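Hi P.,

Sorry for the delay on this. The queue was packed all week, but I finally got your sequence through. Input first:
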Amino acid sequence: MELIDLDWLSAVSLIGLVLLTVLIFYIQKLYDLLEKAAETEKSLKQIQAAYYQSLLDKEEETRKYRHDMHNHLLAIRELARAEKAVQTADYVEGLEENWKKMGSSHYETGNMLLNLLLHYHLSETGEVKISVRGFCRREIRMDEVDFCTIFSNLIQNAAEELERQKEGEKYFILEIDQGEENTRITIRNSSRAVLSGQNQKLLSSKEDGRNHGIGFGNVEAAVKKYGGELLWNGDGREFKVIVSMKI
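Then the structure:
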């Protein structure tokens, strides 16, 4: 009888140990998720602060530009009267170039958070042709942290790949296609990245390829959370990522 009781106690102890291990694992997993969410929230606030400061700077530049416009028009008029066609054309082209630079780092997608991420990650890419095609006609029904996890990672990966390019035309294209229930966002950029023929995993040219993989894994998990699909393809000339979600 004592032997049976001892066996029973051992079994209960073993079950308790297993349950405790599972509980500890669950708590650690929950802690990691909360820590990741807190980091994303902090990063998002920094991105927002940088974006709003850039808007203030742009407004100040625009104010100064408008203030000086009268002097610019006088200079153009005098050049035209002197029949200096080449100098007049050069002057106008200079003004046009300055005007383009003032608005080149701000993008309008119809979604403020997407605007923030584009500005934050693409503002330092240098001579890159950047194009936004399409528009969010309605609000994207998605948690901000998940949205940031997906598109901050993807835009940042594209920006870093563009920075690594030393020659050839560099471009970044974001395409938005939004229906009544689904949203598809495609990101295309010039790239030398290719797909692995063995496991279809993204090959990273970063020094820290392990962290690059973790970031892409987080993107996949967040996309699946919204019943979505993540597709990517790299042929050594262009890298394309398609995110389709029910949002």
